[in-house]
Amino acid sequence: TAVSEGADGTMRNEISETLKTMFGVSSPTVLADYLMYCLPPGTMRGIAYAFYDSWMSVYSDVWCTYVSAQMHEIGHNLNLGHSNENGAYNDQSGMMGLSYS
């Protein structure tokens, strides 16, 4: 099946449902405190994202393997905002600024 750009929400939900079914749990959060969803190329816009104060981070293809991206997104899960909050990723002094590949 072809995957269309921006299908990450659908895939996220399917992964969560599959985890619940496979492990017989009510929520993926029963399995771990934080989960990384690694999606195939062309599935989403951008390289990665996470929700504030949440358990899930989502990565596009190889970005799942970059520790800098993982640290940045888990930072969001822990309620950390971006460095240099003026909208730019110009701050390279910490992991909540620019992520390195």
Strand content: 5-15%
Radius of gyration: 14 Å
Major sheet strand order:
1-3-2
Number of helices: 2
Gap from first CA to last CA: 29 Å
Helix content: 25-40%
Order of helices and strands: HEEEH
Low-confidence blocks of residues: none
Give the integer mean of the pLDDT values.
86
Biggest sheet statistics: 3 strands, mixed
Write down the overall geometry: globular
Structural class based on helices, strands and sheet pairing: alpha+beta
Number of strands: 3
Give an overview in words:
By secondary structure, the chain is of the alpha+beta class. The protein contains 2 helices and 3 strands; from the N terminus they run H-E-E-E-H. Strands 1-3-2 form a 3-stranded mixed β-sheet, sandwiched between helices.
Keywords:
3 strands, 13% strand, alpha+beta, 3-stranded mixed β-sheet, 101 residues, single chain, globular
Summary, kept brief:
The protein is of the alpha+beta class and 101 residues long. It has two helices and three strands.
Set down the secondary structure blueprint.
Layout: H1 8-23, E1 35-39, E2 48-50, E3 56-60, H2 67-77
Parallel strand pairs: 1-3
Antiparallel strand pairs: 2-3
